[in-house]
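Ticket #710: bound-state structure for guanosine-5'-diphosphate.
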Amino acid sequence: MSPKESSSGVDELVYLRNIGIIAHIDAGKTTTSERILYYTGRTHRLGEVHYGDTVMDWMPQEQERGITITAAATTFSWKGYQINLIDTPGHVDFTIEVERSLRVLDGAIVVFDGVNGVEPQSETVWRQADRFGVPRICFINKLDRPGAHFEQAVASIRSKLNVKAVPIQLPVGQQDSFRGVIDLIEGKMLLWELEGDGSRYEILDIPSEFQDAFQSARQQMIEAVAEEDDLLLEKYLAGAILLPEEVRSSLRKSVLARKLFPVLAGAAFKNKGIQPLLDAVINFLPSPIDRGTVRAKEVHGEKELDYVDCPVSFDQPSLALAFKLMTDTYVGSLVFVRVYAGTIKIGDQLLNPRTQKKERVQKIFKMHANSRQEIPLVKAGDIAAVFGPKNTGTGDTLCSPQRALVLESIHLPEPVISVVIEPKTSADQAKLETALATLVKEDPSARLKIDPETGQMLLSGMGELHLEILVDRLYREFHLMINVGRPQVSYRESVAETVTGEFEFDRLLGGTAHYAKVCLELIPVEKHVTAEERIIWDQQVTQQLFLSVEAKKMIAQGCLEALDSGFLAGFPVIGVNIRVLNLQKQDGKEFSEAALRGAAALAVRDALKKAHLNLLEPIFKLEIRVPDSQVVGAVVSDLTARRGKVEAMNMQDNGTTVITALVPLANLFGYSTDVRSLSQGRAQFSMEFAHYEVVPGKVRDDVLRSLGRL
Ligand code: GDP
Ligand code: MG
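RESOLUTION: The complex was predicted; output attached.
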């Protein structure tokens, strides 16, 4: 939607940007953010990741480790524009932070390492941004490093991400002598002092020795831009001079349509290239108006109606998405919201359609990492933290009670690893349960399972680091003395073939007879579907009985609860759809929600009991960079010994071999130490979850035996 078509009064949003910084770990996201805050006057000192004094990595755990764990939000202004920025973690263990940030952002800066180009998680976050349709600009960072190569990094974006990357700058000098950039649109050279804080830079005419490189790079840029824009192409072919403003506005359109991705050059740590990056954010990334209407589902009481498109406007009923929860030591529990329509004010009552409860807005804050500024209201297009809501979780919609709408929620990843946690003294049991419940509420990629018989608490997460950080918070924030078991793989179970189950629920509850009989089948599916998609209703079943939405919900809930633990070893059952085949009631007995839920759960249990169950294990994708060709053989045979499958081996120009392999997580504990000693500390690797796979026969027996199930 163009600004002209938008509802009146929102024109000021043209000057607003909601952006994120995404990248592979260590590409320089936090360092870049710190520079941005400094040059925009938000901070008055340059924080460094390795000194542990950055503003954005504010958690003690982040500062000690030099990594970003939670996505921090901040606001600053640049040349009259307000920019809300979210710095996200690159480590796969914290992928939920990237996911929920991208869900609410309008545009992103993707930072690449000038030496390594596209790395595995650059690819992962790029795909995530694709899913949310987020326009991007690319920043090739670390051009001061030995081995840095701008053109190669651009080439890797083109080949690995398969997109049209368009450099709009050329680096001046590389590695040690990297001094600045040539602006291909303006035809100017920007030079920073070699040392210094980088706040000043000179804008010069392009010297003769750079003219050839400039002319050819500019021509390539113009051709790429004109290829997407017929008017500009005509002008270019006619030999007319193209003004910088014309090139920019044409390129902007293609960036917003995600046809082109501008590429910029810099070295954040050396304080070079940041100001032009900020200009590019303004010039090429979308405002909330450019992103246009947002789709929401209308709900009326229990009924879900159709999708509606909500335009950005300040005076419509309010509509916001809660994308993050954070406990602030001074304020309490904060809910981060992106407002899509209307204006949220202090004192407002907002409806959470999931819980059907109203939530009161008591305070509103603009966040600056972990410090905050109180504001009276937050308008459509903007991001803020709200204090007041009690029962709102990540992905929930908050809207005006006048019109109940539900925005698309946030996709939650499956945890793959878990640890048993117990209090050192049993007096702390309840306190620990509360603490864990708080952590899991803040971070929905962590799960807590409490064994109903033994009271044992199992905390699951995305990786060893994720669990380590959660446990650390139990010590530090909740001052709990605990014992932590060894990390274990979170297996899954699945049914090998379709199987039916049934249950007749016939009980006296509080003096009344309740009855329901459910017959259903479990059908194995390849694709892992979301919970709601798992239940298939036979038309005749629902029509026959005029099932209410609430009754269907109860049946679904019963089914899903029963899938929480399978019969092999109590792991969650995945990769299965449930078809409800038949439902029966009995005259004189209540066809109640309790009866439906109970019958459904026990019918699933019945089917699981009869089924042949597979044990599934998480498989990780590894990318290992081995600089020394002599040790490649040893690294590969070690992978094979871990039941790994090598997928590809590529030798790069600089002699580094890049190995990609799929390896079961069960055999990856301690891998970083092992690969270091195999390669004398020179190999680098990264890993991320790929999929679940059936555990082969012999290994399966070993696993079940070790769990005491065989
Ligand atoms: P993140 O994981 O993407 O947030 O990356 P960080 O900002 O934490 O940076 C990772 C490491 O790279 C830190 O030690 C930084 O000091 C360093 N670094 C960041 N940018 C540059 C750069 O432009 N040049 C060099 N040489 N090092 C950099
Ligand atoms: Mg970081």
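RESOLUTION NOTES: The longest strand covers residues 613-626.
TICKET STATUS: resolved
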